């Protein structure tokens, strides 16, 4: 990999191995008779996937698609392809990529079933994108760049492949201080996923995140959060979450809760 030191290459390997067996969506399967890759499967998990679960993501797709109809969008870290699918349905020319072959295979299957045609669906590493400079009108990444091992580099790679004036729409980075940051640092027990959390999830202050956008004009930076939902989990962290954090956080007025929101999403234009 281009200019990547040994430590980062090892991290990318760990990230790859984790996500290749934990493609986002598999954890939402509650009916074990539903076979991955079937129409029933994609319908079964759809309500839990980002654009359908969080209305602000669908609104953002609508907003961007209006600007990008007939133009070229690169999705980095497409998972099972739900976000790209929504762009394709709106007439955007999509290149869907993910680090892991299993995500790419799922996305391919998903698009075939939905009868939509991407420009390309392929594996690609956000830290070393296999595209020429100034290729795309927009880059979209949802829940990816803070999980790559080098967030700054991922943003600069996105900039490289964007045309001048192109849009980087990054939903989201993990922020601190936030309730999620607190939970992640309360010992080693996993908290986000049932069996094992991803090897990398970096948290930054808003200022740190914005400092990564050198060479961009940041047009929107918005904190996003939801009220804490029940988890069916046992263990120390799960109990702290259920009996302390959730009731306290959910009582906070919106203006205060936003200070501890765990996501920051950024839209920025390449200068
Ligand atoms: C939290 S999942 C989000 C998936 C999808 N964007 C969604 O919202 O459903 C993170 C995704 O980022 C991908 N990923 C992690 N590191 C990556 C990298 N260096 N390059 C490209 N994709 C990466 C993982 O394979 C995984 O599919």
Report on the architecture of this protein.
It is a single chain. Strands 1, 2, 3, 4, 5, 6, 7 and 8 form an 8-stranded mixed beta sheet that branches. Helix 8 (179-184) links the parallel strand 5 and strand 6. This protein has helices spanning 6-21, 39-45, 50-53, 55-68, 82-89, 101-114, 151-161, 179-184, 206-211, 236-251, 254-257, and strands spanning 72-76, 93-98, 120-123, 136-142, 162-175, 203-204, 216-224, 263-270. With 271 residues, it is an alpha/beta fold. It is 39% helix and 20% strand. The mean pLDDT is 93. The protein starts with 5 loop residues before the first helix and ends with a strand. The longest helix is centred in the N-terminal third of the chain and has 16 residues, at 6-21. It binds S-adenosylmethionine (SAM). The site of S-adenosylmethionine has 23 residues, from helix 1.
């Amino acid at each position: 990999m281009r200019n990547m030191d040994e430590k980062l290459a090892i991290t990318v390997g760990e990230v790859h191995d984790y996500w290749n067996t934990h493609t986002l969506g598999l954890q939402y399967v509650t009916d074990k008779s539903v076979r991955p890759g079937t129409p029933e499967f994609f319908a079964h998990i759809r309500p839990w996937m980002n654009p359908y679960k969080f209305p602000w993501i669908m609104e953002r797709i609508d907003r961007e698609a209006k600007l990008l109809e007939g133009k070229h969008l690169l999705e980095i870290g497409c998972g099972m392809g739900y976000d790209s699918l929504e762009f394709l349905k709106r007439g955007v020319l999509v290149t869907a990529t993910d680090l892991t072959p299993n995500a790419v295979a799922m996305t391919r299957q998903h698009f075939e079933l939905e009868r939509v045609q991407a420009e390309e669906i392929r594996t690609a590493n956000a830290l070393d994108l296999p595209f020429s400079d100034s290729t795309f009108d927009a880059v979209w990444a949802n829940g990816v760049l803070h999980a790559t091992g080098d967030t700054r580099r991922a943003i600069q790679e996105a900039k490289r492949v964007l045309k001048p004036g192109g849009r980087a729409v990054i939903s989201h980075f993990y922020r601190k201080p936030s309730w999620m940051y607190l939970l992640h640092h309360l010992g080693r027990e996993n908290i986000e996923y049932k069996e094992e959390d991803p090897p990398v999830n970096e948290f930054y202050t808003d200022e740190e995140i914005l400092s990564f956008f050198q060479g961009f004009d940041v047009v929107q930076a918005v904190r996003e959060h939801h009220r804490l939902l029940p988890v069916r989990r046992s263990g120390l962290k799960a109990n702290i979450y259920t009996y302390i954090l959730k009731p306290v956080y959910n009582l906070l007025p919106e203006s205060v809760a936003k200070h501890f929101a765990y996501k920051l999403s950024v839209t920025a234009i390449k200068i």
